[in-house]
Amino acid sequence: MRLKTSQRSGFALIILLVILGILSLLIGTLGMQVVRQRTEYLRREQRLQTEWLVRAGIDLGAAKLQADPSAYQGEKAELMPKGRVEIRIERAGNVMAITSEATFPTDDEEHAVVRTQTRRFHRMETDGRIFLQP
After folding, report:
1. Is-contact 86 101, C-beta < 8 A?
2. Backbone φ, ψ for residue 87 (5° rounding)
3. Is the bond into 69 cis (omega within 30 degrees of 0)?
4. Cα–Cα distance, 25 to 27 (Å, whole number)
5. Could you tell me which residues are beta bridge partners of residue 23?
6. What pLDDT is recorded for position 1?
């Protein structure tokens, strides 16, 4: 009879090890999914931040062109920490093209997101005031 009791104890330990193995796999898989989702969330946040930075660069360029259209040639600016914007101006008569290139984050070149956008404006002057019309 002792033989049967020790065989049952050994069988219970094997079942326990199998259950622990399965639980370890489930917890490991869950952990990997959490890390993957967090990484995807950070990438999405970087893409959105870059999109808003590129838009801000267009707006900044348009505002400075409106204030002093003949002197403003563009600039490089850090509008926020880790966010760089380069603004370039091209002129062709009364049509002005503002190109904004945004990079975020600037401290991690390997994972940095770069986005470029160009908008064209027509320069109009009414009653001594300068307007930029898209």
Report:
1. yes
2. -115, 130
3. no
4. 6
5. none
6. 43
